[in-house]
Amino acid sequence: MIITETSRLIISKFSLEDASFFLKLVNTPNWIKYIGDRNLKTVKDAEDYLLKGTLKSYEDFGFGFYKLYDKESSKYVGTCGLVKREQLEEVDLGFAFLPEFEGKGYGYEASSAILKIAKERFHLKTLMAITLPINVNSIKLLEKLGFKYQKRVKPFEDDEELLLFAKQLET
Known about the structure:
33% helix, globular, Aminopeptidase, 6 helices, 29% strand, 8-stranded mixed sheet, alpha+beta
């Protein structure tokens, strides 16, 4: 199901049929380095992860992470979307891309579209984002999107310190 489109991207909901793409994405070097190894080794692992995470989020909150399809290359390039984590006060913006599509402006394009629907469709007032301090590209993108650094946090059991950013969505 298509959520929205940009000049280059079709942004749509994940389904179980996307498990092989998702498996490829979560096993890219930057996903593992900056987001963490989800220990998904098979398409079945990816299906289970999608069912318990993204697809459940659509059901519970009406939003989640979305797949990004590049109209020109006819390929899936990554993911961008919204997640409500127990550990954070507000909904969190997240994104990740296949290596061959990094640094081409897809992050800004997709995130801008997601910010718009966060405000207009889901009526969110504030968004948060978390990233590792060493993830310079994500920090730059968040700042370009208007997110402001708030503080360092350790939201997860791994005790990893992350940078917390927030953005007020204009009313």
